[in-house]
């Protein structure tokens, strides 16, 4: 029996009869129409061709999905080869997407794979619109936020402008792994919780410092290291041509030395080589079995969505391999005021009355729902601080140490506090956000930390 | 093709409270919610402009200046073509962004006097995405790219400055000489001969 027949006989077993977990409109595939759909029509986009992407591509192809596209901007590195099994040593330096597509097509000749060796954010909404489902194995929160917002924006509503037209909903299946832990998730844009709805569930990264703090008022050794890598490296001779390679000991050493110089200039102690490494790459080993588990879970969700042979995951599952094999599903809820898929209300931030613009920027960088590290803040249409373009950055940088209360006029006044409506944008935020900044008497307000920042009820 | 319709039905059957809330808002199209909607729209428009401005693709060939750093809706973009007839010149454009952005495009006028088939003596610019082909998915950067393209490949078939368009088609060498002559004159007299705003 050839591989195709083997593959389809397994699929026949799944699709040939109903079961307790089948979706409500599942019909047994007596006329092969479901298999035809998988084989010839269902277009699946795999975003990311790293460890998870390889697993996903393999599993999807083995399920019979034959209209695959894969996007990845990265190239193959020696350290990838132990787990990114579609790549071999001679492929080093080549595009992950292209090599993965070729390798998959060699192994599963019936499968058509188109490679896109580009940054996912450079692809147009029209590109994304052509797919039935998008499955993502990405390595950053930023990329997921972008993809999620794009898929949400593709949903068209019926004439009441409220009810999503289900034929325009492109499900996003998202996988992620870290060491022995992993998660998979199904997002039905505008029908179920989107990525942005639950953004605050992610722990803050250690590197969430606004660039202006790094540049003007460093206080921690981490600030100095981050400044050396994010600001000094791109200006250096080697950094002009290539981003910092955190796996190159020479480059890490360079960052370490610059960070020490800066720390000395500002009288900050504690910059060590080990801390530099820790800040530059949150070293977590990649585990092949975790990727296999999560990649398969994601591929299975795609299969469920395409065939309805079982109800899709509602809507998130965690896998933890550190203590046995532990799997836990959880149903996230939509946020009515989600900044991407809901009707966002201004986010309320409480600060002491003496707070400066710089204080506000630190709060928005550390805020779990914002995570804005290169924020630009505008009051009405008057910019308070613009991270770019350079002309505006220069013009507004002088505002950083000034008190907010002195820079803003005509607040709406409540008894003992001043309120200002500001708008925030940041490269990591798909749409930007309105902020309602409340300045309170010093004794009424705690220092501006995360727990004093609350959402409007 | 995905059987999402079934999911949606199930959601409705499950008595989704959020749907009920959504329907309530649509039904009560009273003055308050209309005002809220238009405020929300203005806020969305401002956020979009703010975001587009932070993403402006400035380089050694494109600079952006804000005459009043307190006003994001008016700025001047200068373009320096790296090749072609207009190589080496700086061409300045005044941008004025309406409150209805991105549903309406910004108004763009050329401040530098230039002999160009698609830019007239008054500084009007003929670029499709500034008028009929503008779409909200386009951004300020789209216009920046469009303007740069205009200097690399002037379009003689859709001439705004008829004389320049005809000369480009019939006598390319003479056209080139005229362009250079105008650029020299502009460089010599500098900003004084440039149009005010």
Structure description:
The complex is a heterodimer of chains A (457) and B (197). Chain A is an alpha/beta fold and 457 residues long. Chain A folds into 3 domains: 3-201 and 286-330, Rossmann fold (3-Layer(aba) Sandwich); 211-280, Ubiquitin activating enzymes (Uba3). Chain: B, domain 2 (Arc Repressor Mutant, subunit A, Orthogonal Bundle); 347-452, Roll (Structural Genomics Hypothetical 15.5 Kd Protein In mrcA-pckA Intergenic Region, Chain A), CATH 3.10.290. Helix content of chain A is 33%, strand content 17%. Chain A has helices at residues 3-15, 33-41, 51-63, 96-107, 125-129, 141-153, 211-216, 221-235, 249-265, 273-280, 288-307, 357-366, 390-396, 404-407, and strands at residues 43-47, 67-71, 112-116, 133-137, 172-178, 181-187, 316-320, 326-330, 347-352, 376-379, 382-385, 412-414, 417-425, 433-440. In chain A, helix 3 packs across helix 11 (288-307) and helix 8 packs across helix 10. Chain B has a domain at 56-189: Ubiquitin Conjugating Enzyme, CATH 3.10.110. In chain B, strand 1 (62-65) and strand 2 form a beta hairpin. In chain B, helix 5 packs across helix 6. The relative contact order of chain B is 0.11.
Question: How is this fold's topology laid out?
Answer:
The complex is a heterodimer of chains A (457) and B (197).
Chain A: H1 3-15, H2 33-41, E1 43-47, H3 51-63, E2 67-71, H4 96-107, E3 112-116, H5 125-129, E4 133-137, H6 141-153, E5 172-178, E6 181-187, H7 211-216, H8 221-235, H9 249-265, H10 273-280, H11 288-307, E7 316-320, E8 326-330, E9 347-352, H12 357-366, E10 376-379, E11 382-385, H13 390-396, H14 404-407, E12 412-414, E13 417-425, E14 433-440
Helix pairs in contact in A: 3-11, 8-9, 8-10, 9-10
Chain B: H1 4-13, H2 17-27, H3 31-54, E1 62-65, E2 74-79, E3 91-96, E4 107-110, H4 140-152, H5 162-170, H6 172-189
Antiparallel strand pairs in B: 1-2, 2-3, 3-4
Helix pairs in contact in B: 5-6
């Amino acid at each position: 029996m050839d591989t195709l027949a083997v593959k389809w006989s397994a699929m026949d077993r799944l699709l040939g009869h109903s079961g307790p977990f089948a979706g409500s409109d599942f019909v047994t595939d007596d006329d092969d129409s479901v298999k035809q759909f998988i084989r010839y029509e269902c277009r699946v986009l795999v975003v990311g061709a790293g460890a998870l992407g390889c697993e996903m591509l393999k599993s999807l192809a083995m399920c019979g999905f034959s209209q695959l596209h894969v996007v990845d901007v990265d190239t193959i590195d020696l350290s990838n080869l132990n787990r990114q099994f579609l790549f071999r040593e001679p492929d080093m330096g080549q595009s992950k997407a292209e090599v993965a597509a070729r390798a998959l097509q060699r192994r599963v000749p019936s499968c058509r794979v188109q490679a896109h060796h580009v940054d996912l954010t450079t692809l147009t909404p029209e590109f994304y619109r052509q797919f039935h489902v998008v499955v993502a194995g990405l390595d950053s929160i930023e990329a997921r936020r972008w993809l999620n917002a794009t898929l949400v924006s593709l949903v068209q509503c019926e004439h009441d402008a409220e009810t999503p037209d289900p034929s325009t909903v492109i499900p996003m299946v998202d996988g992620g792994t870290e060491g022995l832990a992993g998660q998979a998730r199904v997002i039905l844009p505008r029908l179920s919780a989107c990525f942005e709805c639950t953004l605050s569930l992610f722990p803050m990264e250690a590197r969430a410092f606004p660039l202006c703090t790094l540049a003007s008022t460093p206080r921690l050794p981490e600030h100095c290291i981050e400044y050396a890598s994010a600001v000094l490296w791109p200006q250096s001779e080697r950094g002009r041509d290539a981003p910092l390679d955190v796996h190159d000991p020479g480059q890490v050493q360079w960052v370490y030395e610059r960070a020490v110089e800066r720390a000395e200039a500002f009288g900050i102690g504690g910059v060590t080589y080990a801390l530099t490494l820790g800040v530059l790459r949150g070293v977590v080993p990649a585990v092949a079995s975790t990727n296999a588990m999560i990649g398969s879970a994601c591929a299975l969700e795609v299969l469920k969505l395409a065939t309805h042979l079982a109800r899709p995951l509602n809507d998130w599952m965690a896998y933890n391999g550190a203590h046995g094999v532990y799997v836990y599903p959880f149903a996230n809820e939509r946020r009515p005021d989600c900044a991407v898929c809901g009707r966002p209300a201004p986010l309320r931030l409480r600060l002491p009355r003496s707070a400066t613009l710089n204080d506000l920027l630190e709060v928005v960088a550390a805020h779990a729902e914002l995570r804005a590290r290169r924020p630009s803040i505008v009051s009405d249409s008057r910019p308070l601080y613009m991270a770019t373009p350079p002309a505006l950055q220069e013009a507004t940088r002088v505002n950083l140490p000034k008190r907010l209360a002195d820079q803003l006029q005509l607040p709406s006044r409540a008894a003992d506090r001043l309120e200002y409506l500001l708008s925030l944008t940041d490269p990591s935020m798909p749409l930007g956000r309105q902020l309602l900044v409340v300045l309170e008497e010093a004794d009424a307000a705690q220092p501006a930390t995360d727990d004093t920042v609350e959402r409007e009820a | 093709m995905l059987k999402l319709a079934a999911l949606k039905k199930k959601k409705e059957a499950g008595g989704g409270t959020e749907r009920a809330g959504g329907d309530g808002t649509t039904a009560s199209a009273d003055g308050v919610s209309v005002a809220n909607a238009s405020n929300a729209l203005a806020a969305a428009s401002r956020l979009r402009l703010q975001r587009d401005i932070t993403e402006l693709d400035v380089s050694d060939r494109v600079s952006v200046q804000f005459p009043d750093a307190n006003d994001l809706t008016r700025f001047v973009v200068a373009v320096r073509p790296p090749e072609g007839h207009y190589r080496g010149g700086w061409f300045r454009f005044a941008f004025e962004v309406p409150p209805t952005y991105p549903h309406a495009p910004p108004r763009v006028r050329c401040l530098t006097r230039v002999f160009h088939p698609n830019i007239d003596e008054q500084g009007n610019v003929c670029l499709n995405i500034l008028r009929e082909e503008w779409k909200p998915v386009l951004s300020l950067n789209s216009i920046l790219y469009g303007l740069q393209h205009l200097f690399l490949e002037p379009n003689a078939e859709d001439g705004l400055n008829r004389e320049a368009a005809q000369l480009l088609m019939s006598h390319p060498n003479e056209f080139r000489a005229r362009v250079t002559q105008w650029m020299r004159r502009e460089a010599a007299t500098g900003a004084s001969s440039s149009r005010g705003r």
